[in-house]
Amino acid sequence: MKYYNLALEIDPKHVPALNNKGLGLITLGNLHEAIKWLDKTVEIDPKYITAIDNLKHVRKELENS
To answer: Hey, what domains does the chain have and what are their CATH numbers?
Structure first.
């Protein structure tokens, strides 16, 4: 997370860093915060399939909990 935060300080719209921060938050169990970062990713790049898939996964996980 440290390096994703650093990358985002340099470039707040760095799509891979935004997505990976979201993934890290999923791993840490912080699903609501992960959605925020993944939403930012898709907002910047609506065709970034990886983030779209990650959002679907985390929303489904929240629905099932």
So the answer is: 2-63 (1.25.40.10)
Which band of pLDDT confidence, cut at 50, 70 and 90, is reported for residue 65? confident
In SS3 terms, the chain reads as CHHHHHHHHHCCCCHHHHHHHHHHHHHCCCHHHHHHHHHHHHHHCCCCHHHHHHHHHHHHHHHCC
50 has a pLDDT exceeding 90 = yes
Distance CA(39)–CA(65), nearest Å, equals 20
* pTM metric for this prediction: 0.91
Calpha distance 47→52 (Å, rounded): 8
Is residue 8 within 8 Å of residue 25, measured between CB atoms?
no
